[in-house]
Every structure is written in C-alpha cells, then in structure tokens.
Amino acid sequence: MFLLIILFVSGLAVTIKGGDWLVSGASGIARRYGLSELLIGLTIVAFGTSLPEFVVSLLAIIGDHSDIALANVIGSNNFNLMVIMGLCGLLMPLSIQKDTIRREIPVSLLAVVMLLLFGNDFFISSRNDSVSRLDGIFMLIVFALFLIYLFRQSKLDRIEDQKTGIIVSKKKGWLLIVSGLGFLLVGGQVSVTSAVNLAKAINISEKVIGLTVLAIGTSLPELVTSIVAMRKKNVNIAIGNIIGSNIFNVLWILGIGSVIMPIKFSGSYNIDLLFLSAGTVFLILAMFTGKKRQLDRWESIVLLGIYGVWMLLSAGLMKYPILHFQFLND
C-alpha cells in the first residue's frame, strides 16, 4: 500500500510538472501574437492546466473506469470554482469583466446542465444512464462554437495588456510544450493505475478517490497558476484559467471521452453536479451583490463553505439521498 501511495504522489508530481511546462511554453508563444490576458487564461492556460484531468480521465475511460473519469472532472470543477476562486477572492476582491459574467460563466453553467441531462438520459429513454457518443459529439460542437466565438470576439476588443508577461522564443516554447506533454502522459498513466489499485486495496470506491484525492491533485496546476497570477496582479489570467478549465473539463474532456467510449453515469453524481451548479449560480449572483462585478471576501468564504459541505457529503461523513432523474424520461 505504501508503494501505491508513493506511485500515486509521484505520478501526480510528474503530471503537474508537465502541465507547468506546457503552460509556460504555450503562454509564452501566445504572447508573441498579442493575445489578451483573459483570452490566454480562457484558452491556452486553461487548456494546459486541464491536461492533467484530460490525461487521467481519458486513460480511466479507456481502462473502463468511468467512475474515476467522471469523479475526477466533477471533483476538479468543484475544487476550481469553490476553492481556487475562493482563495483568490480572499487574497484580494476579484473584479470580473462584464463580458465574462455574460459569456464565460453562463457557458460553464450550461456545460454542467448538459452533463446532468445527458447523464440521466433526458433525451433518450434508457435504463442504463450514460453519456453516449452522440452526447459527446454534441458537447464537442458546443465547445468548438464557444472557442470560435471567443477568438472572433477577441479581434473586436481593444487589447491593452497584450505586451505584459513573459515572451519566450519559439524553440524554447515548443521544447516546453513537447516535454510537458510527455510528462503528462507518463504521470497520468501512473496516477490512474495507482489510484485504481489503491481504491481496491483500502476498499474505497473509485468515485471517492476520484472526487477527492485525484481531483485535488490534478487541480493543483490551476491552483498554482491562479495564485501566481493573482500575486502578479494578473487577475484576468486567474479568472480565465478557473472558468476556462471548468468549461474544458466538461465539454472537451468528457466530450472526447464519451466519443471514444460511452461513459456510465451513476445517479450518485447528480448531487455533486447540483452542488457545482449552485456554486456557479452563486458566483453569478455575487456579481450583483456588494460591489458590482466583484467577488468580495465574504462571498469567497461562502464558496469555500459550500465546498466544505460538499466534501463532507462526498467523504460519507454526511448522508444524502441518491437523486435519480428517471422521471425526466416519462
């Protein structure tokens, strides 16, 4: 068991380092083309920091461990939204751009609602709930439309911060990207294998492992990136990284995963998705309470509190009913 723990931690460390190198390379190259901080956060940085979740979840799906894949994505999104956003808001009140409130945050909520509907077979009556290949294709289409909209909108916006940050040479940038991808693949494989074996060894469900240890571990790149961005006063990168990662995790990761192999969906995930939805709705409402378009410190504490309650439920320290939505098929 001790060896499994060492392998799991080592795998996460390698995965996180790979994500760090990838983000550094991709962000540095992106800045050469004058992209805004928010766009970099929503796309390049969000994609890079979501790669640990992508690799871990994809390998889990291929290995027929749907619980780990779903739990990793849902757990990571809850951690991103409630813990990372909450901690950033505690460091300093977060001023969020008007367009982010109108576009990106609602899209992240839409992604959660889509997963709820698809997982519970809202559109196709079935006894075995799953995210099907058709569902995955639809999620990828929505994701592609979102990216197209972002890049088109960025051309219309006046960019004032395009010269800030570190610009790397093309050679160094691509070296970091390739090395980062290699570390992500190796670390992700080790993390998934050791997590599955560890769950079996201590008789803990794959869902609990995925929602807690694995989810928090693969979210460390988002945490480190956002905290560093906040300390450097790059608030837009921090916010874009959090919201963008949540969108990537659901629409991109689960979209591709379900196209490769339909993902089994248990009714026990409904409460987890409802918590994620509640946290996202609270973030939207927080933009209209207190100082407008700002996440105040007390609102950050509420986000952290919501996560604490959810963790108690996930760890089994608090009981809740499993919510099945089969009535939606009637």
TrEMBL record:
Q: Is Glycosyltransferase included in the keywords of this UniProt record? A: no
Q: Where is this protein found? A: Membrane
Sample GO molecular function, one term: calcium channel activity
Q: Transmembrane segments in this chain: where? A: 6-26, 38-62, 68-93, 105-124, 136-152, 173-196, 208-230, 242-263, 269-289, 301-322
* Residue stretches in coiled coil: none
Its record classes its membrane topology as: Multi-pass membrane protein
Which GO BP terms sit in this record?
intracellular calcium ion homeostasis
Which cellular component appears as one GO term in the record?
Answer: plasma membrane
Q: For this UniProt entry, what is the primary localization, expressed as one broad class?
A: membrane
Q: Which domain of life is it from?
A: Bacteria
Q: Which InterPro entries match?
A: K/Na/Ca-exchanger (IPR004481), NaCa_Exmemb (IPR004837), NCX_ion-bd_dom_sf (IPR044880)
Sodium/calcium exchanger membrane region domain mapped to chain residues: 4-151, 173-314
Keyword Membrane in the entry? The reply is yes
Pfam families noted in UniProt? Na_Ca_ex
Q: Identify the keywords attached in UniProt to this record, alphabetized.
A: Membrane, Transmembrane, Transmembrane helix
What name goes with this protein? Cation:H+ antiporter
Species name: Alkalitalea saponilacus
Taxon lineage: Bacteria, Pseudomonadati, Bacteroidota, Bacteroidia, Marinilabiliales
